[in-house]
């Protein structure tokens, strides 16, 4: 089971503008001292981690991939959180 990273990034990008909780990050310049950043790829990051909107089951899709993948099977809650991050 492989995840198409490019398709996943496109899905994330398509849901970002419609997410009301982060819309301010697209309408104003993000201060340099903020923990938020907008990459050249258009992906919004929080502390250098890609922000995944709670839309179209994207978060669930990523969790399921990391949980069920043969190489990264779930080895406990802390390990699962480390893999997802």
| DSSP, total strands | 3
Q: What's the mean pLDDT score?
A: 77
Determine the number of helices (DSSP H or I, runs of at least 4 residues): 4
Low-confidence stretches: none
Structural category? mainly alpha
Measure the end-to-end span.
19 Å
Q: How much beta, percentage-wise?
A: 5-15%
What's the SSE pattern?
Answer: HHEEEHH
- Computed over alpha carbons, the radius of gyration is 14 Å
Q: In which range does the helix fraction lie?
A: 40-55%
Give the overall silhouette.
Answer: globular
What is the spatial order of strands in the main beta sheet? Answer: 1-2-3
Largest sheet: 3 strands, antiparallel
List the helices and strands and how they pair.
Elements: H1 5-15, H2 24-27, E1 36-38, E2 44-46, E3 49-50, H3 58-68, H4 77-84
Protein architecture, described:
This protein has 85 residues and is mainly alpha-helical. Helix content is 40%, strand content 9%. Strands 1-2-3 form a 3-stranded antiparallel beta sheet, with no helix packed on it. A hairpin with a 2-residue loop joins strand 2 and strand 3 (49-50). The longest helix has 11 residues, at 5-15. It starts with a helix and ends with a helix.
């Amino acid at each position: 089971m492989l995840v198409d990273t490019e398709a996943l990034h496109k899905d994330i990008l398509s849901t970002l503008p419609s997410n009301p909780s982060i819309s301010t990050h697209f309408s104003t310049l993000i201060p340099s001292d903020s923990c938020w950043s907008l990459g050249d790829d258009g992906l919004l990051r929080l502390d250098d981690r890609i922000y995944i909107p709670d839309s179209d089951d994207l978060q669930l899709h990523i969790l399921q991939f990391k949980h069920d993948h043969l190489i990264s099977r779930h080895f406990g809650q802390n390990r699962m959180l480390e893999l997802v991050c």
